[in-house]
Amino acid sequence: MAKADGPEKHYRGKTGSLVYYRVKGVTYVRKHVEKIAAKPPTKLQEYGQRKFRLAGEFFKPLKIPVEFGFQQQANGMRTGTHLACGWAIKNGFKGSLEDSTLDPSLVKVSGGTLTGALSPSVRWAGVGKVLFEWEDNSNLGSARRDDQVMVTLYNVEDKAVFFVLEGNFRWERQQVVSIFRHDLHVGKLEAYISFSRPLAKNKTRDLSDSVYVGRV
Question: d(Cα 44, Cα 83) in Å, to the nearest integer?
Fold first, then answer.
């Protein structure tokens, strides 16, 4: 796989023995490999394929918060979704080979070097409102008072996602999220919190590792 320059950067699809495709506005080229009939997969291979499939299904509705949450680590083909899936495949599954499941409490929706949330909590606070709260740990580690909170709520069963990407400051110690048709989501929302800070050098943001707060 390599970047395609010159006239080739406008190519799409298969041309001879090469395949051209675009990712985030950049054209890449790779050799086309003919599929060869393979032996039936082993149990371990089936397990790996299953984990890959389940992680992909889990993160598909989370594309917007995950791409934001891993923006500092993403590079070319390594998108935020790929990074989140990779972490989940290695760390997010519970159970045996035959009945393994992806545990929402073990995944990450953001990753980076910032100090994360201290003692976060989440609860319903009025009709259609979910309230995140945390302690102000400004000036501990790499935390700063003007870091902005990122919160994500995910109904895995119904594939519904609610989020605030650049929310209140760390020192404000709370963030409210509005939930559309809240009656469908009570008791089903997996909650995650992290913080971000802009980086002037490349116009992206550094993030903290997300913290799973619980189900609400």
Answer: 22
| Per-residue pLDDT, 6 | 66
Domain with CATH 2.60.40.10 in the chain: 43-215
Q: Are strands 204-207 and 189-199 parallel, antiparallel or unpaired?
A: antiparallel
Top-level class of domain 43-215: mainly beta
pTM, to two decimals: 0.81
User: 109-133: b or e for each residue (b if 16 or more CB lie within 10 Å)?
Assistant: bbbbebbbbbebbbebeeeeebbbb
Per residue in 54-63, pLDDT (tens digit) is 999 999 999 9
pLDDT confidence band for 120 (50 / 70 / 90): very high
